[in-house]
Specification:
flat, single chain, four-stranded mixed sheet, alpha/beta, 38% helix
Length: 234
């Protein structure tokens, strides 16, 4: 067994076996393992990774995301809690207060099933919608003022993989999913997009500008974002 390095999945462990006809992949904890026929070249392994990348992300997130009754999920400025209800068995309900949203799942729902995880995850993403509008836009405006730049406007999107985007027209879109991150990582994403107002690329000059916006913490925060354990299936 040996490993290849992947930009997204890190070390991917490869085992080549006689008699195999196809490449198979599975997660063991946070590590991805590939079984491949003998003689398969690395280029083929990498192209297979790219072809199945979306499915691999989904299966990884389903394996790592776990829910339980009474769970408290800290969001930016408020909390989400997972509770039970005994009303309609096929519905998830919400109970809102100023600093908490209770996500009420049917009593007896098996939260270890993949389908249930997807269902609860979608509910959590919906639960942050109003809070995102109230909190993310003012934060982004404050950060832009602090670093001395002025986008045309900020808008919110529903993306869960792409956290931010700067258009050629200087409109910055931020994902509502940023609400699941601590404030310092939200600011990392905001500063990244604000730097695109000056550099529409990822050059050394771009990263130097991002780093200056973050008081020299870009690399530190990027590492934290890379290992952040999302509470939703992405």
């Amino acid at each position: 067994m040996y490993y290849i390095e992947d930009k997204e999945f890190g070390r991917v462990y490869v085992s080549k076996r006689a008699g195999m006809r196809n490449i198979t992949m599975r997660w063991k904890g946070d590590s991805l393992y590939m079984n491949a026929p003998r003689g398969v070249r690395e280029a083929k392994l990498r192209s297979t990774l790219d072809n199945f990348r979306v499915k691999l992300r989904a299966s990884r997130d389903q394996n790592t995301v776990a829910y339980h009754i009474g769970q408290v999920i800290q969001c930016y400025g408020f909390t989400l809690t997972i509770e039970e209800h005994e009303s309609r068995r096929n519905s998830i309900m919400f109970k809102h207060s100023s600093d908490n949203v209770a996500v009420l799942v049917p009593k007896g729902l098996d939260l270890e099933e993949a389908e249930s995880k997807q269902w609860v995850s979608k509910a959590l993403k919906l639960a942050i919608k109003n809070h995102a509008q109230e909190r993310l836009i003012p934060l982004a405006q404050a950060v832009a003022e602090r670093v001395g730049v002025a986008p045309k406007r900020f808008v919110l999107g529903r993306g869960v993989r792409k956290l931010g985007h700067c258009t050629p027209g200087k409109v910055i879109q931020l994902s509502r999913s940023l609400m699941f991150l601590p404030e310092e990582l939200i600011e990392l994403t905001i500063c990244h997009e604000l730097a695109h107002l000056t550099h529409m690329n990822h050059s050394k000059q771009f990263h130097a500008l991002v780093d200056s916006y973050l008081s020299g913490r870009e690399r530190e925060l990027e590492k934290k974002l890379k290992v952040f354990k999302w509470p939703v299936v992405r």
